[in-house]
Amino acid sequence: MNLKDLPADAQPRQKLLMRGAAALSDTELLALLLRTGTAGRGVLQMAQEVLSTFGGIAGLLHTAAEDLKRIKGLGGPAKRAELMAVLELARRGLAQQLGAREVFGTPGAVKQFLQLHLARKQHEVFAVLFLDAQHRLIAMEELFQGTLTHTSVYPREIVKRALNHHAASVVLAHNHPSGEVSPSRADEALTQTLKSALALVDVRVLDHVIVAQGDAFSMAERGLL
Questions:
Q1: pTM of the prediction?
Q2: Is the pLDDT of residue 172 over 60?
């Protein structure tokens, strides 16, 4: 069924305006964004297929633009660009929240923020959250890419960036494309190396978070710092 064939008070746009966005299902909200379906398949069906394919809204937020091409009707750039724009808005909104409050007052938000940025990447990325004295986010920077080892992550560069941001503390983060978030011995050793290097300039390492699609591991929560 096309949206125009629904009763006026059941059409997602009218329903949202009359009853608020919370009254809409995930499928209806996504259908509003997609606007049109394909021949023989209404936009509500298309929205449901997208959600089923990628594991709901949470899965969609961790989906790369290329993956969306798997859905008939999303092969062109326009709709895929709109969905990626929504993802970027979610990232920026969360970044603003972390910049306005103590990061570790909302550890779940930190993990979600890092998952949105790193979890979908197909190669390993090492990033650093630079925090002020109140543990509010100053900036996030992706500093290293590729296979992460002691030789590919340079403590001197992280120290330099921390001083540049006048950071009082940092959160280290990287992704595991394999999907396994448990730290390796190399991850633990690297964490201690960076912790020692940053301590020389009076910058604390508050956590090292490892993320994958749908999961995250905090070394601080597990007592590994």
A1: 0.70
A2: yes
